[in-house]
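Input record, target 12 of the design panel.
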């Protein structure tokens, strides 16, 4: 009555008609909508939750209360979220009604200009938005990442900034047709700009998810593609930086001689021992394994993890060799002889893998 100027009789009649057609539900607690489209049903739920809710919780409430014209799939996120103009992503998998985002408190032109200046300073037309957010901490308006994400997505085009949020990419570009910037691109960019090699944890911190699992996935793929090199345990950099001060020709000459001595499988720590001794160096086995990996096709060699050979390798890794060749009933020195007949290993790696194999056997028995 107060909103639309209806008299009491007209208002009561309207409510009864809506209830009769099942567009609303009248209860002692109040009047609730029904038969809403998915987007409106989702937005309606979030009106009662100023801090936002995970999408699965939202869907369960919509279905339980019967707000939507149709039931919403509770196993995967469907329409009604990403294409919803009434809500925004306010956390990982969590949504909030835009009613609770006070835009008047945000200087949107200033926020957009800072992002434009950043792209200009970096002399690039595109960036992963989370990488920008991480690198400019303390140098811009202090707002939450997902608030920034919403602003760029909703208002960016007015300032010549184009947002791509598909598949959690969160790329921002000056070019509407720009190639999507992936998490893998972010890792390569971060490693290229870093003055030192980075740990897996440090790399994960630069990803939107901050997940070590995600970092491992991308790093493994990038290593297979030869775009990233592991220089030590859990430490990575780019090939250009890893091999910058190495006489590749001299190192590869020593490694070729090792493989030519006898036709066996060689573990990369043997490269470390011989190359460092011959050339008076102190690099890790991971550097040499990565260097050989860049030339595998040219050499016609085979690789499995840290194992290299001129012939196909029938084992996944050293632990797999122990499982297939070693005998649990024999003492460690006997199993060492068995293992070293099949693969050329340093003493340190041999002792380590046998210990790992023994531990594996113990866990199998306990399981």
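The sequence produced for target 12 reads:
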């Amino acid at each position: 009555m107060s909103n639309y100027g209806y008299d009491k009789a007209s208002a009561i009649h309207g409510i009864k008609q809506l209830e009769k057609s099942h567009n609303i539900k009248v209860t002692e607690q109040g009047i609730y909508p029904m038969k809403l489209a998915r987007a409106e049903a989702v937005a309606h739920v979030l009106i009662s939750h100023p801090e936002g809710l995970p999408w699965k919780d939202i869907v369960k409430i919509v279905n339980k209360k019967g707000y939507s014209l149709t039931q919403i799939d509770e196993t995967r996120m469907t329409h009604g979220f990403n294409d919803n103009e009434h809500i925004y992503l306010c956390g990982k998998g969590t949504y909030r009604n835009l009613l609770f985002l006070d835009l008047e408190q945000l200087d949107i032109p200033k926020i957009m200009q800072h992002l434009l200046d950043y792209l200009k300073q970096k002399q690039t037309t595109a960036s992963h938005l989370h990488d920008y957010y991480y690198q400019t901490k303390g140098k811009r308006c202090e707002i939450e990442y997902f608030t920034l994400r919403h602003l760029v997505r909703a208002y960016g085009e007015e300032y010549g900034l184009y947002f791509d949020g598909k598949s959690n990419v969160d790329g921002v570009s000056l070019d509407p047709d720009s190639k999507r910037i992936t998490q893998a691109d972010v890792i390569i960019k971060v490693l290229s700009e870093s003055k030192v090699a980075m740990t897996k944890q440090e790399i994960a911190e630069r990803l939107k998810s901050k997940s070590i699992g995600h970092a491992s996935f991308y790093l493994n793929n990038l290593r297979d593609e030869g775009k990233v090199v592991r220089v030590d345990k859990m430490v990575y950099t780019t090939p250009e930086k890893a091999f910058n001060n190495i006489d590749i020709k001299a190192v590869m000459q020593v490694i070729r001689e090792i493989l030519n001595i006898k036709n066996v499988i060689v573990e990369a720590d043997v490269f470390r021992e011989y190359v460092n001794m011959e050339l008076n160096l102190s690099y890790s086995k991971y550097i040499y394994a990565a260097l050989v990996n860049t030339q595998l096709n040219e050499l016609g060699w085979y690789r499995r993890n840290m194992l290299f050979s001129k012939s196909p390798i029938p084992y996944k890794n050293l632990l797999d060799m122990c499982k297939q060749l070693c005998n649990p009933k024999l003492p460690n020195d006997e199993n060492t002889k068995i293992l070293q007949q099949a693969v050329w290993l340093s003493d340190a790696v041999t002792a380590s893998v046998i210990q790992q194999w023994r531990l594996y056997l113990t866990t199998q028995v306990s399981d």
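The mean pLDDT is 89.
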